[in-house]
Amino acid sequence: MMKKFHNNSEKQSYILSFVKINIRLLFILFWLSCITGFILLSYVSHYFVPQRSLSIYMWSDKIDESILQKFEKDTGIKIYVNYYESNEELITKFEIAKDLNCDIILPSEYIIQPLIQQGFLKKIDHSRCDFIDRLYPEFMNMSFDPANEYSLPIYWDVLGLGYTHSYFQDGLPSNSWNLIFNKKQVPCKQISMVDDSREAIFLSLKYLGWNSTQLNTQQLQTIEELFLAQKSWVGAYTDFQQGYFLTSKTYPLVVGQRERIVREMLTDNDLAFTIPDEGTLLLISNIVICASSQKDDLVYQFINYIYNHEMMMLSCKEFCLLPTVKDVLEELPQEYIGVQDCLPGQKNFKKLQIFPNVLTQKQINDIWIAFKSF
């Protein structure tokens, strides 16, 4: 039945309301279509790529573009690269799509166990890898994959303190995490802190002197309060801008990943990097094969190619990466390493630890959100 209106004003109001509702519905349908398209894209895309091709998911700063181009030229195998900005983003994509239809991934160590448990990874045939005996044993048989059945380490790194010589002319007042967590010992007005909740929690454990393999509710509350107090002298939380903050003199002290700070050290002699005496977080990038991959011959051809001495050295120099391959790391010039006595066999290497998955992602997120929203 047609709606009756008492006057033109009521009619116009009704029409306007009707139009607004339809616009909202169209807006919702548009975004639902975008989300559905994103999920389906990875599923259907493999039907439209050449058979002699590989699909790879990785961080943007792990394999130099020239290596991928050279591999394509040398082998005739086309490489399709998908980049992700966090391990959480990667596993979320897996959980949503169930199958990314990719062949190779370069994830961090702590995400490997969940990927194995959910059946997303294929076992690696060590007999088809010609570089196993060149890997440092210190990076093998780790707790997240004890026999390296599903993963092989390719690069490693550490968290530490970056600072400027011009501000700290006599050096840092101490080589300790006290400089970022203890208000009485913070040596400057503001610092830059990592924006990765998992990494930040591990550093707080080092400062507090607590065991990282088991944590109770009271300890989690203490960590949250520590971050809340620290917030007053943190000028920025970031995972990618530490080098810029140092070179621009925005902050004289930053917490960050070694490789990102050392890249800036190559062209700025005012910068320095150190690992605090309490020890720090060991980060390991790994090669894994997706369970859905049906291209074993191409996969192993690619893996052996990027572990080649020349190829790996190229990436290490381009991005200041630390390789897990002995012959490459032994020849890597010190300026690309940027820190003393932290290599396998050296005294500070024993202070490096991975952070086992003792906390759920929800527990980690709850701590981070609680103090950031305060």
Automatic annotation (TrEMBL):
Ranges in coiled-coil conformation: none
KW tRNA processing (keyword) present: no
Biological process (GO), any one: polyamine transport
InterPro entries reported for this sequence: SBP (IPR006059), Sperm_putr-bd (IPR001188)
Keywords: Membrane, Periplasm, Signal, Transmembrane, Transmembrane helix, Transport
Domain of life: Bacteria
Subcellular location: Periplasm
Entry GO MF terms: polyamine binding
Entry GO CC: periplasmic space
Pfam family, one: SBP_bac_8
TM segment ranges: 21-44
Keyword Transmembrane helix: yes
Principal subcellular localisation of the protein: periplasm
PANTHER family, alphabetized: SPERMIDINE/PUTRESCINE-BINDING PERIPLASMIC PROTEIN, SPERMIDINE_PUTRESCINE-BINDING PERIPLASMIC PROTEIN
Protein name per its UniProtKB record: Spermidine/putrescine ABC transporter substrate-binding protein
Record organism: Candidatus Chromulinivorax destructor
Lineage, opening ranks: Bacteria, Candidatus Babelota, Candidatus Babeliae, Candidatus Babeliales, Candidatus Chromulinivoraceae
